[in-house]
Write a structure and sequence with these properties.
Radius of gyration: 15 Å
Distance between the termini: 13 Å
Helix content: over 70%
Order of helices and strands: HHHH
Structural class: mainly alpha
Number of strands: 0
Largest sheet: none
Shape: elongated
Oligomer: single chain
Mean pLDDT: 94
């Protein structure tokens, strides 16, 4: 249906994954199978769901996968906020990635609306 690599939302989501992995490198090693794993899985889920949805047979299916990606963005934001609360991240480090999450969510909403009108 769509070449997902050309979608700006997918490209931004890939940037988000990279930034998330970099942030996680500052976490304590004992979190490797805990919070780090959770954060990385939901970050990777965002571009993965966008790519999978783009390859589906209908706009309805694509919208569904975009909805799942949005849920993963909310999950990621929650886990990063928790990381600040328990002292694994500084608020200043969270600010930039939170802005990126918000930007992707807005792009996602716009794309869902566009697909609904086709």
């Amino acid at each position: 249906m769509n070449n997902y690599r050309e979608l700006k939302i997918w490209q931004k989501s890939m940037d988000l994954v990279e930034k998330t992995y970099i942030l996680n490198s500052t976490f304590p090693s004992e979190e490797k199978f805990g919070l780090i794993s959770q954060i990385q899985r939901c970050a990777v889920a965002v571009p993965s769901n966008i790519a999978e949805g783009a390859g589906r047979n209908s706009n309805k299916e694509f919208r569904n996968f975009l909805g799942i990606a949005n849920g993963s963005l909310n999950e990621l934001a929650t886990q990063l906020e928790l990381s600040v609360r328990i002292g694994y991240l500084k608020e200043t480090n969270l600010h930039h990635i939170s802005n990126l999450i918000t930007e992707i969510q807005k792009m996602n909403f716009t794309l869902i609306q566009k697909l609904s009108n086709i």
